[in-house]
Structures are given as structure tokens and as C-alpha cells.
Write a structure and sequence with these properties.
By secondary structure, this protein is an alpha+beta fold. It is globular, with a radius of gyration of 35 Å. It starts with a strand and ends in an 18-residue tail after the last helix.
Length: 1097
Amino acid sequence: MYWPIGTPRIYATTTARASTKPNLLVSHDGVASSAATDTGSLLSIDSIPSRVLDEKDTGTHDTATPFTPGLKTPATPAVNSVEHDIYHDESGYGSQQYLAGSGGGNIPVGEPIVALKVSRTGHLFAGITATSMTIWQTKPTVIQAVIVRSEASIKSFGTNVALLLRPDSVIFVVQTSLGYLITYSLATDAESRVYKPRFSDHTNIQRRRQSHFGGPGNSAPDQVLLGPGEGVGVRDISVRFRRVIKVDAGIECALALDDELVVATKTPAAVQCIRWTPDSTGSQTSTELVSRMGWLEKKTSIIEMTHDRPMNLSTWITSDGKAYAVQRLAASKIRDSADFDPKKLFKGYCFHSPPGEDDYAVKAVVNARFSLIAVGCADGSIRVYSARDYAGNIPPSHTHKAPVTPQTSGALTTLTYSPDGYCLFAGYENGWATWSVFGKSASQSFHANPDITSTNMEDWLAGITDACWIGGACEILLVSRQNEAIWLLEMARSAVTGCYSPPNLFRTVLQTSSSVMVYRGYDLPDLTSISAEPFLWHTARIPENYLLNQWPIKCTVVSADGRYVAVAGRRGLAHYSVNSSRWKTFANEVTENEFQVRGGMCWYQHILVAAVEANRSYELRLYSREAALDSSTVMFTQQMPAPIVLITPSGEDSLLVYTYDNLLYHFVFAPVSGAIRPIQVGQIAFHGIVRSPARVRGLSWILPESQMIDGDPSQDVAFASVLFLVDGKLVLLQPSLNHEGQLKYDMRVISHNVEYYASMRDQSAVNMFGESSTSFSVETDEGMLRNSLWVFEGHELKLWPDVQEVLRATSNDSTKDLPPTVSIQFDFYPLSVLLGKGIVLGVESDLVQRRDISFSFFRFSIRTHLFLPEILRFQLVVNNSAGALRLAQQYSNLEYFAHGLEILLHHVLDEEVDSAPKPEAALLPRVLSLLSSFKQYLDIVVRCTRKTEVRSWRTLFAYLPPPQELFEESLQRGSLKTAGGYLLILHTFEEIGAASEQSVRLFSRAIREEDWELCKELARFLAAMDESGETLREAMQLVNIRVKQDSDDTDIMTRLEVPSRRSNGTASRLARQQSSEGSSGAQSTSDLSSFGTPSPI
């Protein structure tokens, strides 16, 4: 659901020349500086040297290096607020200095970035080189601080090798090559700003019209130059050196958590926990040896650690290639347990045990949204496990395979999930790749042209060492090998990732950092809707005045008819009319910031329903598209007792609202006093059924047909079967009555590894059958797909043609097998099902490299797949020929319907030629019987023979009438091109002579109807029968036609040249050759349907 778009922006601390910064901070990291320049004389009058020292270092100029024997770490003093630790040293020998002027303090030029980290909130990120650290603000993307370590510090502690960032972004920890941890603290003034633009006269600034722009514009003069998310300006920060920690045992890796710093040591192998502040007993450190951890292998060390805060779960990778899921044991719980051991700090389980060296774990990352753990292996593959509980139940889920060989990709270097969990990014030594959460390949850079990449110096395509998501996953930061630049690549993603709603599933909407793109091919002719032309996308740029302070966009939703789109960012919302291309935003900034959308949005006709949180209250708000956005124009506000997980429309006028207290509310839209209001008519409690409401991604229900037509809406909750999408599991809950007559629900997981599902009953509610294919009837139940249930499981799209069969199979019997599904494979990511057009719509990413431009860029194109052949085949396999016929008849008016039947015939024929099934088990006769019900039957058979080998023809015509009969029938229908195809088959089967009666009849008919293209093909065919041309001459004599022209009346034979070519020896070789020529020939005007129509494949 994620695709890169455009070309990345490039950010770097330095350019090709040395850069001198007046506020550059040179840090000696506690080491006394002997540099003559580090004196008070370098300081300006307003710049006072600041020194932040350890408690034991206060008052001394020779700062001793803190060290600890063995595994013990010194009692690190508490890291207090910066304002309380400023120390003024008149001598100028402090731990750090601000340098002014140009007399030194140059930032190192050309040093490659070693590591990159982003804060938990995403408002800043930091990168380190071997000797410096740079702190960036995300929006605007500017440098806030640069810390360059002095030569004395480098000599004493070594170069930078890793960067750690405490989740609250207050403390930065730099790991060095000599086994030291250098800590820095950051303080921010919430009110102070730097680089504020000022304009003496800004009254003449041109602005877009309010009707299109969506608001009064950027009226403030200091906001004219700002872009999305840059309304806060550039914050003023202060960075101070805190302390150096030496670990004599050596550092394998480290982890910065909220309460402590976790360090894995080398010799001996152990894990040290250093608290940021001492506990109640005054203790600040604790250690546990690896050899004493019974759940870890002996004589191993920990080489990689990651932690996921939402799941409170860590992953450890050991030197023997195994991966462990680890939790920190809380001290209070340890004391209460029977087997209390104060030395036990961690508890873990091995979930990845490699069978060989290629399967050794090298990277691991946790996906909390889907409860997954991805493990990157030495061979470049990524094995994903499902974390079902905290007791070690972590079975394998699926595997992501690299799109190229391990030799081409190189070693895996980084692994990261998008914040919403839908996309996995993997960086390799020679490129990168992305997948959807359950394994569908989305994009990759391995196919980039190395010459163009090298010429353009686009190292972001040639290898990645680190990557971090920012902006709510609308952008990703990339660090390439041996490069000082940071590349920011924009990502486009499906609107389903932010708002799981039926209209978003049935109408493809993509969302980027600053715009939304709506696919508008639903109401266009069939052949137009399946093209890949860019005009099929309606692109709307989100108003700058909304993006200024509310970036990034978190939620996007389209209306059922595709006329309206709504977006919501950090706070407030905005909506857009596709027909008028006009946005509406809040004119009052205070009103816009008063609430935030939490729980999603949906449209009911022209009314936008938003689940919002405002002043700690939870509401459903209704906004009219016709009215201006303001607190006074809210149509209706429905108070909710708990936060809303999601809202989804159902049926024609129903709204389902699921809340964090595990209640599902059913509302019905109805006019009250002349205005539309949601009226609650029922609710369902799922206590004890759904364990974690926050893990529910999607929701819908299925009502019996009788209840939908004649039933009381207040009783819908008693009859509805509810579908929950929890993590990657699709759960079906069916109502029944217990022995006491009370309502209960029987639960059954009907599908795993589900990225999304779509019930076509919801699609009928979204009014998707008003497409150009008028033959599609909603009222037709039997044999139709309006009751189908579609599930995308990462690698394939599965569907049950009738969801009622699923309900019957799961009712009152949890052990009964589910009915079989239709499986559809894709080489692109499917986004929506256009049921009336018989296609699945998707998007494919493409890397464009051209020699006439100096940069590469990504673009995505529309891809479609005709699903009709797979479903028809499924029906024929289960001997439901009547159902297959009814289904095919519903799609018979599609312009590419014949092509779909041809695909069905071609696939079945290819399989049965190789497998040679028994006649009673063969599927081919059923397919041909189905095809014979349609007028395109003869054309489909001929086109199929043109695209298959001659050896397949015998198998095909074993179940068909003789080719002679098909030839005669084609002539009777006037399909001369089709008759020509059967003539070729007759010659191949050697059932007729060279200049046969059939050839003469067809030639004469073609000349009489002035089908000169067919005449040319017949002449070429007859001339190729022998090199002397006797066959053609004999045929022309039999035809005995003279073509009269104005200037010359000559026999047609005088205008034909007999081709000089060698005899091909056998009729079969001639037939194959002529078949190849005929397939590329021009289309006959006598039978337009004899050639294939453009394919949606």
C-alpha cells in the first residue's frame, strides 16, 4: 500500500567546501583541551562559555575519564534539566565551547553518515559521522545544532559508531569505537524561534482565490515562505555535554529506553542496565550475565537489540544467529513471584533458530500494529513471525524474498516498518526494497541502471545503510553508503491505511505528503477505464494554509459516489469537491485546533461524519459540504461515552461505530425537524470476545436479505453476522441464542494474513453498480457476485462467491471446513475491485532513468486484471455450469468480454495438453460448452489456436466439431477473418488440398466484399505453399476474377508477385509460420470482433 513517488530531496550538513558555522559547538567531552584557541579570547561579549560537568568534576579543569572495573558501571548522576546545570568557567577549559568568527571550528567535510535516528514524535532527527553529530528539525528541515568532537575527545574515546536517542528526545547517546558512551542533553524553548522572515510590505502578495484555496490564505507575513508542517517555525534548542561512561567489558550494542540505558557487553557477555535516574534505593545500575540466563545459549553474545514501546517487547539477536523475544522483568512483579531472584532482569524466548548459516539473523524489527516480528537473515530474505502472546507462542507467519539474488543485493543493512505497520522497508548494500505487510513486493531499486546512477551520483539507489520514517510515513529518510547526504523520499499510500472504510476500498484513493489522488475511471467506458493514462487520476493539492500547521495528513476518505474527499491532519479537517475542485477549510485557526479526528471519517450523501476528540470528550460531528467549516455550522453532535476506534457506513443509511469500551453502536440516518440526524437503534457488547479493541482495523456486518428488506432496523443487531479484521486475522462472529434465550456469538477465524477484505454487500451500498456496464443487475442474486467476500492475503486475492455459504459452514459447527475459495494471482498490488467492469484495479511503481535529465524518479501506473476467467473456471471445476453461464451473461456486454473467455480457454488448454486428464475428468469440454453459448465462440477458438502450438490443436479439436463445420458456420455468419483461421487449421490437419474449394470460396467472398487485407493474407498463404507459385496461380484461375481499374483492365495475376522462398518442407511448419504472420496482420473490416480487444491484464 506504499509506493515511492518523485525524486528525493537531499540534505547535508556540509557541501563540497569547508563550512564555518558561527554557532558551531566543539565538544571536548570532558577531556581537558590543550588547544591554544580554546581560550576566552575567542568568545564574543555576549557568549559566555558554558560547561556541564559531572558532580565529581565540578571545580576541576583536569577531568579524569570515568571508568569502572569489570562489568560495574559508576553511579551515573541524574540527568537533570539543563537550566540547573550551567557552570561558568572563566578559564575557558570547559567541556564545550561556542566558536565565533572564521578562525576555526570547521565542520568536517565529506564524512559519511554512520547512523540516523528519529525521535518518537518525529519532530526531529539526528545523524552522526565519525567525529560529529547533527540534530535536524523535521519541518522545516533545517539544522538545529552541530556538535563536533575535538581531537582530544577522538583520541581518548574513539570515533562515533552508533547513535542512541531516548524516546523523549531529551538525551542523545553516542557509542564510540573504544567502548565509551558519550551522553548529551537537549533542551528546547517552546516559545523561542530562530530564522523568522520579516517583510516590510506584504500587502501585495498574490494569493489563490478562496473558493479554490480553501481559506483566507497565509495572512501572517512570516508564513508566506513556509511549506507543509512548517508553521511552527524553527525551534531554538540547546545541546549540552553530560557525561562519558566507560564500559571496560566492551560494547556489542546498546539500547536507549524511557527509564534506562541497556548495554550488551562483549567480555564477559552480559547485559547492563543503567538507569537515567537512581531508584528509591539509590541504585542506578544492574547487571545480568548471559551465561546465567537459562533461556539463552551458553557462550553466545548479544549483537543486536531493538525495542518496541507499544508492545513493550524487545528483540535480541545473538552471535549464533538466533533471535529472541525479550521482556524486562519489573522489580515489583519479581518480588511478588514465588521464584523471586533479584539477579534476573530479563525473560525471553527463542523464536528463530537458523538451520544454516544463510538463515542467521542479522536484523530484527517489531510491527506492533499487526503483532509481527520480522527477522532479516544473512541471505537477504526476511522471515516474519506472529507474536500471539508473551509466553513464547511466536510461530512463523510468512517470508519476504528479496527481488534479486543475494549476490546482487548484498548483505541486509537495515530493516524498518512504517509507523502504521503496512509497509516494510529493507536496505541492502546494493539497493533497497519495500513490501506490503504480508509480503507483496511494492518497489525496489535493484533494477536501476548503474551507469546512470553513478553519473548522477544518486547513491540512494545503489545501497542503503540506514532508514527512518517521518511525517506519519509519508516520507522516509535514507542514508547511503559512504555519503554525507540524507535523502528524503516521498511516499504515496492508499487511503485505506489511515481510514479503513468501504468507499476507500471500492474507490482507489492515494494520499501523498501534500495531495490526494482519486481514480476516476469508474464512470468511463470499459476500455478507457482499464488504460494506464495519467488523466484517469484526479489530483487535488491540499490547501497550504491547512498543511502549514496540521501536516502530516493522517486520514483521508472519499464519498460513496466519488464526489467528495475529506482529509484530517494533526487537528481539524478539510473537505474537497471533485466536481468543482474546491476545498473548504476552517477560517478560524482556534476552531480548527479545538479538535482532532480520532476514529476516522465517512460520508453520508453530502454530509461528512467525523469521529473527533475535543477537550477530552468524544463525539460524532456532522458537517455539511454546502456550509462553511466553523463551530457554528456543525449540523449535529453525538456524544460518545468512550473513544472511537472506527466508524463505517453499512447499507443505505446505517452507521456502525465501534468504541474502545468494546461496544458496537448501530445508528440510522433519518430526517429530524428537517435535518439529517444519526439515531441510535441498537448496540452490541463484545466483552470477552474481542480482547483488544485497539487492534481492530476493519469492521462490517452481514444482514439476512429478509431483515434488510422488511426487518426492523432496531433488531438488526440480533440478526447481523459481524466481520472483524483484528491484526491480520479476519474473524466472523455469528449470533445465536444460548439455553437461557440470550444472544451469544460464535467466533471463527476464517482467514489469516489479511491486509484488507471487502464485502460486496457494502459495495452495493456504495452505489458502485452505476458503472458503464449496464447489464449488471443488483437485483440478480443467484449466480452473481453481490454476495461475494474478497480477501487479500498478501500474495493472492481470494474470494468466496457467496458469503452465505461461509455463514452456513461456520454456524453451530466450528470444525466444519470452510467452502473453497477462488484464488487470483497478481504481479502488482491490487487496491480495489470494480465489480461491474469485471476487473481488479491496482498500482505498480516504476523507476524512471533517462540520460537527458540528471536525476532518477519514481512514478506509478495503473494496472488492471480481469478476474472473470478465474471465477468462471472455479464454477466449472465444482460442476456449477449453470452458475458459470449466469455469471458470464452478466458480463457479456463488456468490450473485453471475449478476451476474458479466450484467457479461460487458453489456460485450461495449456494445462490439459500437459496433464492429459481422463475425458470424464477433463475441464476443457465444460469450458467449450460455456463458450458455445456466446456469439464470439468461433472467434475465441480461432484466436486461441493462433496463440498456442500446433500440438495443442489436436487436444482442443477433440472436443469440438470438425474444423470444416466451423469453417462453414463462419462463412454463414459473414466472419471471413474467422473463416480464414479455420482454413489454416484445415490445411494444417491436411484435410483439404492446396488450392481447395474452401480457399477459392473464401477468396471470392473476400474480393466481393472488398476485404483487401484478407485477400492479401490469403495470397501470401497460397504463395507460401510452394516456391514455384503454382498453388496461387491455380487458385486464381479457379477464382477467375478480373479487377477492373480506370486506366487498365488486367488480370489480377499480373499484379501479384510470387515470392521467392525456399520450400518449408512440411505443412506443420508452414502452418506455424503462417499462424505467426496472421496473428500480427491487420484487422479485417468484415469482422471486427475476430481480433482480441485491448486486454486489462
